[in-house]
Design goal:
The chain has about 260 residues and is of the alpha/beta class. It contains eight helices and ten strands. The protein has two domains: about 170 residues, Rossmann fold (3-Layer(aba) Sandwich); about 70 residues, no CATH class. The structure holds adenosine-5'-triphosphate.
Length: about 260
């Protein structure tokens, strides 16, 4: 049997604060993510969502259990992962194209014409074909986040990790970006783990939603999203959409499950 793309196996993360206090960010987290699946992780502030992402990315090591990618334990950052953070973290001294090709420059010290062409394709994919030579400060917040998505796709990662990528955007741009992301994902299928505080965003985007408890973050429940794809504005008025969102709202505001 092929292993899942990502597996969390009895994962736990305890941090030590500067004062020496132990903070349990994650506790006994176990679930799998399959190939090209879109999984949203939803939970209250401080329940360990970003910690989960940093563990998959190999940026920190778990204090208990393991994260596996294709059956191999994650011990360091890997190329098959692209990450999009809440803020686009672009470099103002490069133009848009320079930012998209930056992972190549960083990894190999140079960027070839082939990669520049690939970056232009990605800019077209995120609807920024005409902005390749613009300065970063000439772009709106939503456009900057699209540049960050194109940059995350440059090395053609199998896995895309997204940490509240649209939360700094206004509501309209946020909806627009959600549909944009779905379009990109159907064009270039990836295994996606998408972290969010937003129930509607999770329901609109995901195949499955992992609902976490407040800290220490445990998996409260994992829900299938039975909404058909492609999703559209009509999805937002589908009764299933509202029933699921209501269920999650109830789940998030109920008392945590007993340990
Ligand atoms: N390096 C660290 N040292 C000490 N505590 C940490 C560290 N990193 C995270 N924490 C703590 O672990 C808990 C989980 O943090 P994390 O950022 O993963 O939560 P989150 O669910 O992503 O929160 P938010 O939704 O507010 O971004 C928090 O209580 C946080 O203060």
């Amino acid at each position: 049997m092929t292993p899942p793309v990502i597996r969390f196996d009895d994962l736990g993360q305890v941090f030590r604060t500067e004062a020496g206090r132990a903070v349990t960010a994650l506790d006994r987290v176990s679930f799998d993510i399959g190939r090209h699946e879109f999984v949203a992780v939803l939970g209250p502030s401080g329940c360990g969502k970003s910690t989960l992402l940093r563990l998959i990315a190999g940026l920190i090591a778990p204090t208990r259990g393991a994260v596996e990618i294709y059956g191999m334990r994650v011990t360091e950052p890997r190329d098959e992962i692209g990450i999009v953070f809440q803020r686009p973290t672009l470099l103002p001294w490069f133009d848009v194209l320079g930012n998209v090709t930056f992972p190549m420059r960083h990894k190999y010290g140079r960027v070839t014409e082939v990669e520049r062409a690939r970056a232009r394709d990605l800019l077209a994919l995120v609807d920024l074909a005409d902005f390749a030579d613009k300065r970063i400060d000439e772009l709106s917040g939503g456009m900057q986040q699209r540049v960050a998505i194109a940059r995350a796709l440059l090395l053609d990662p199998d896995i895309l990790l997204m940490d509240e990528p649209f939360s700094a955007l206004d509501a309209l741009t946020r909806d627009e970006m959600s549909f944009e992301l779905l379009r990109i994902w159907s064009d270039r299928p990836k295994t996606v783990l998408f972290i969010t505080h937003s129930i509607p965003e999770a329901v609109l985007l995901a195949d499955r939603i992992v609902v976490m408890t407040p800290r220490p973050g445990r998996v409260r429940e994992i829900l299938d999203v039975p909404l058909p794809r492609p999703r559209s504005m009509a999805t937002l008025t589908d009764p299933t959409f509202h029933a699921l969102a209501d269920h999650i709202r109830g789940s998030l505001f109920s008392r945590p499950a007993a340990a």
